[in-house]
Structures are given as C-alpha cells and as structure tokens.
Write a structure and sequence with these properties.
Blueprint: E1 14-17, E2 33-37, H1 50-61, H2 72-82, E3 85-88, H3 91-97, E4 104-106, E5 128-133, H4 146-152, E6 158-164, E7 167-171, E8 175-179, H5 180-185, E9 191-195, H6 201-206, E10 210-213, H7 220-223, H8 228-235, E11 240-243, H9 246-255, E12 261-262, H10 265-277, H11 279-296, H12 299-312
Parallel strand pairs: 1-2, 2-3, 3-4, 5-6, 5-10, 6-9, 10-11, 11-12
Antiparallel strand pairs: 7-8
Helix pairs in contact: 4-10, 8-11, 9-11
C-alpha cells in the first residue's frame, strides 16, 4: 500500500484524517473511504464553553481552517457523520461519537520510538525528583497539585523535572507565546526543564523517582483525556500518581494500583507521601505499570486494532 500526504482535489482509496487536519476541506469528500482519528474530547465540552465557542472562528483566522466554521463542535459532529470509521481513545469518547457514526474504534499511541530505556534503580534521590511530561500548553495543569507539592516539600526535599516544550503558545498553537519555565515557576519553586526529544525523553524520565499527571477534573475536555501519557511513563518503568479521570482510574485498576489515581488533595498527598517514603512501593508501582503497558498495549496489540479499523472500511490487510 502506497501513501502520501493528502491534498484536496485528489482521489484516494483511503483518506486518514488526523485531529490536526483541516476538516473544513474534507467534510464533503466523496472519492474514497474516510477514517477520522479523533483523539480528544471535543464532543464532551458544551458549545457555550469559552474555548469551544471561539475555536471554529479562531482556526479560520489563524489559517488552520480554509473555510469559516462558526460551530466547531458541530463541525466535528459532521465529520464523524461523514467518516466511514472514527478512531478515538476512551470509552466516553466512543459513546459520544457513536451518536454520529456506527463504526467507532478505540486505540492508543505507539511509544516504541520514545521508550528507549526503562527504570531499574528505585532508590530515592536528594532532592526527590518528580517527573512531568507533556505539551508546554499543559504545564499549567500542575497547578492542580500546587498546594499538595508545597505541603509535601515540608516533609521531603523536592524538585520538579519537566520534559516539555521550552516555549509554547497559550491557544491554538498560534496565540500568546510564553516560556514553560515561567508557568511552572509560578506553581513550584524548584523546577528543572528539559526540551522534549525522542532521543532523550526516556533517559530523563527514568532518572526521576516517580511521575505525576494532575488534570483539572472540572474541565470535561481535560478530564476526558486518555491514558497515553500514563502508558508512556509506565513503559519506562516509572511509578506514577495521577488524577482520577475515568480513563486513568480504569488503567490504574487494571494495573493493580488503584490508590495512585487521586480525586482529592488528601488522596494526592497520601499517594505521593507513600512513593516518597518507600522504595518497595515505588518499585511495585513502576513494575506493575510497565507490565500492564507491555501486556495490554504492546505494539502488536495496537497494530491489530488499526488492522481492524482498515478491515471495517473494506481495506484488505495482509
């Protein structure tokens, strides 16, 4: 099977649209099958939510959409109706998308190019190195546990290690450029930041003591995120404490570490204190997570899910 970057006006037997695609140009595509890869929970956010309300016009003004679409959520719904298959990342997304498309599949990211090494030493550092990884625009999510980190720092010497973009835009990858270190420094005093690269990500994360993934549980878009970030840290063998979103709770339960998915500041403090205090707890959590990621979401399993997507739209898989 040959492939190329799709160009409007060309004919393709199969068109795969990523979430970054200009769907304003592909809504009426009739030349071949369409698979829409929708990884985030845009359908969960109300139309009247601020970002949702202005997302469509902003994408047009910044050149991300060729055609003006005032109702971005409605545009996503239309794209789901047009698609022959939609790929998503959580059970909640699948439920929402199924209202518009009957052929919905769930899968998650590959991490083979990033998880190049894994943690073997679970001894503690001084200060304790707490890892966070992700897009620069999401550094602000660390504010969810700002008070918890400050309380824990009274008991243990702490540092935050961030693997992220050194600079980022606040919205739509176009608007409001800021330095990620400045955002993080408003949340915690002792922060070290490393640029995200495939070559260095696993080495930096595996050198930390444990990871955190705090998320704003009051934001439907944020709380609807899948466990991709968690699986990456787990593949590297890092023990992780995370917010108790639906996807993270399911993953933590499956791995056998349900106490590390936290819904309240007290739960966060208890979980972080446990990992900070016990090498046995860190090793058990890290190895349980790595075992789950490699068993359930290994490369063969993810490829098999994509095979089923292609077969569902009539594309033969050898």
């Amino acid at each position: 099977m040959t492939f190329e970057i799709a160009r409007p006006g060309e004919r393709y037997d199969l068109l795969v649209l990523s979430q970054a695609a200009d769907i304003s140009q592909w809504l009426d595509y009739t030349q071949g099958k369409v698979v829409y890869d929708l990884i985030d929970s845009y359908l969960a956010s109300p139309r009247t939510e601020f970002k949702q309300l202005f997302r469509g016009p902003a994408k047009y003004v910044t050149g991300q959409f060729k055609h003006l679409r005032l109702d971005y959520k409605g545009t996503v719904q239309e794209m789901c109706r047009r698609a022959d298959a939609v790929v998503c990342t959580t059970d909640e997304q699948k439920r929402d998308i199924s209202r518009f498309c009957s052929n919905v599949h769930l899968t998650l990211d590959f991490h083979s190019s990033v998880a190049r090494q894994y943690k073997v030493d679970y001894g503690i550092g001084t200060p304790i190195r707490i890892a966070w990884e992700g897009l620069g625009v999401n550094v602000q999510q660390l504010g969810v546990i700002e008070d918890v980190l400050r309380q824990l720092s009274k008991e243990f010497p702490l540092s935050l290690t961030l693997v992220t973009d050194l600079e980022h835009h606040l919205w739509l990858n176009k608007i409001g450029r800021v330095r990620s270190i400045d955002v993080a420094a408003r949340i915690f005093d002792n922060v070290i930041i490393h640029p995200w690269t495939e070559e260095t990500c696993a080495r930096i994360l595996s050198g930390c003591d444990f990871g955190v993934i705090p998320l704003d549980m009051n934001d439907p878009f944020v709380s609807g995120k899948p466990e991709n970030k968690l699986l990456l840290m787990w593949r590297i063998g890092l023990p992780v404490v995370c917010s108790a979103t639906p996807a993270y709770v399911r993953a933590m339960n499956a791995a056998g570490t349900p106490n590390l998915a936290c819904a309240t500041p007290d739960e966060w403090l208890t979980a972080l204190r446990q990992l900070a205090s016990s090498e046995q707890a860190r090793r058990a959590a890290g190895q349980a997570g790595r075992g789950h990621a490699n068993r359930v979401w290994n490369e063969d399993a993810v490829l098999a899910r994509w095979d089923r997507v292609l077969e569902s739209v009539g594309i033969a898989v050898n």
